[in-house]
Design brief:
Helix 10 (354-363) crosses helix 11. A hairpin with a 2-residue loop joins strand 1 (11-16) and strand 2. The chain is α+β, with helices and mostly antiparallel strands. It folds into three domains: 3-118, no CATH class; 152-243; 248-408, Orthogonal Bundle (Phosphatidylinositol 3-kinase Catalytic Subunit, Chain A, Domain 5), CATH 1.10.1070.20. The strands form four sheets. It has a six-stranded mixed sheet with strand order 9-11-8-6-7-10, covered by helices on one side. Strands 4-3-2-1-5 form a five-stranded antiparallel sheet. A three-stranded antiparallel sheet has the order 14-15-16. It starts with a helix and ends in a 5-residue tail after the last helix. It is built from twelve helices and 16 strands.
Length: 413
């Protein structure tokens, strides 16, 4: 990207549901400052940007300090991580560490109902208002951001049931998660775990396994899908932050707690998540949280970090637990007796007992009866559904064996 473009952008407007609510200003030396607009501050019926922008009394926080190189945690968490970040930054000609400019390029299709665009008179990111022809689309920057590490893209459904990844990466209502070059059959694993969760009554978006041959415009340079993967499948999931071509606002718990993505395994526990859900949500939200916590313990998912839990604002102001995502049994790949976060006192799967859940309920000020009754129902339901369905899911024999070995070590029965 020409350096003059980067040097000519100093202020980004933050829009929520298409309405400007805040600015992010590059104040020099790679320092940025976030500020709400007066119109948002003075709006008593304003839509909620995030729970972390409220003080202990529920009033809007309005004083923020500049951050260096990174954006504030809320906006940093909207950007992809690691491989995906490097890939998109390279395509756009932006240093992946300079988050202000990465957001400038990717801000047109973020998670939730946020968009970010240059303020009036500021330089537009490359190709923002251009149709990209077939000869140039390989080099064109992709203009969307799905947070996380895994290679995944926003996609649009075709009339024939296949999917197309738009040349700009922008505007899809499906997420395509490509096969892993490190671990075997991750899409099949995730599809199976999500289907099991659905059978147990959890709130799971529409999902499918789709052969790579039915996905058009997989960007060049993404993974090497050679002969070994020519018949591979991708895991496809409907975006729950898009409904009838409208954005629905969401935020993950790293955003809620003001934690940078690299600290998503630290600085909070399942108990902390439960406490927020208990304060903000209803009994059904607490029951759904409990179902998911128990389920992911039973399948051996050691990767349920802060970014794999979210809240959704269906009415723009009230937070409830968002639909389920990223349910994968990790133990077939990495044998581990520990979850990614503490439940209440321990993160060890072998310490997952009714007593540990009672402790969580007491400390998070939740109904112990609701938590324990839901946990018992989920355990009983899981064992019944697992025995009936495991042979009919696209799981390898080694995956089934790993999960069954793991289940024998879980004390919750």
């Amino acid at each position: 990207m020409p350096s003059h473009l980067v040097n000519n952008v100093s202020t980004l407007n933050v829009l929520l549901y298409g309405e400007p609510i805040a600015t992010i200003t590059n104040v020099g030396n790679d320092r940025t400052l976030f500020a709400f607009m007066d119109s948002y501050i003075n709006d008593e019926s304003r839509p909620v940007l995030g729970l972390g922008f409220k003080d202990s009394l529920g009033s809007l926080l309005t004083n923020f300090k500049p951050t260096q190189t990174k954006l504030t945690p809320f906006f940093s968490n909207l950007l992809p991580e690691e491989t995906m970040r490097n890939y998109l930054a390279e395509r756009a000609g932006v240093n992946p560490a300079r988050e202000f400019f990465l957001l400038w390029v990717l801000g047109q299709d973020l998670a939730g109902a946020i968009t970010v665009e240059p303020a009036d008179g500021e330089a537009l990111p490359p190709n923002v208002h251009q149709d990209i022809d077939d000869d140039t689309k390989i080099e064109a920057p992709m203009r969307f951001s799905l947070a996380g590490v895994q290679l995944k893209f926003s996609a649009v459904q075709q009339a024939n049931g296949g999917l197309t990844i738009p040349a700009t990466g922008k505007g899809g209502s499906w997420i395509v998660k490509l096969p892993s070059s490190r671990f075997d059959a991750v899409p099949e694993n995730e599809y199976s775990m999500m289907e099991l969760a659905r059978m147990l009554g959890m709130d799971v978006p529409e999902t499918q396994l789709l052969p790579l041959s039915q996905i058009a415009n997989i960007p060049q340079g993404v993974g090497q899908f050679g002969d070994a993967l020519k018949n591979a499948q991708a895991f496809v999931i409907k975006r729950f932050d898009r409904e009838d071509n409208q954005a629905v606002h969401i935020e993950d718990f790293a955003q809620v707690f003001g934690v940078y993505p690299q600290d998503k395994y630290k600085k909070a526990s399942m108990r902390n998540i439960a406490q927020v859900i208990g304060i903000e949500g209803q009994d059904e939200d607490i029951a759904e949280f409990t179902r998911r916590l128990v389920f992911n313990t039973l399948i051996g998912n050691a990767d349920m970090h802060l970014k794999n839990w979210s809240v959704i604002y269906k009415d723009k102001r009230t937070a409830s637990i968002a639909p389920a995502y990223d349910f994968v049994s990790t133990i077939p790949y990495i044998s581990d007796d520990s979850a990614s976060l503490k439940v209440s006192r321990s993160k060890k799967f072998s310490d997952f007992t009714l007593d540990e859940l009672s402790h969580l309920a007491a400390k998070a000020m939740l109904s112990e009866k609701l938590v324990l009754d839901t946990a018992k129902q989920t355990v009983a339901g899981f064992h019944e559904v697992w025995q009936k369905e495991k042979a009919h899911l696209p799981l390898t024999k080694s995956m089934i064996e790993a999960i069954e070995t793991h289940l024998r070590n879980i004390p919750l029965r």
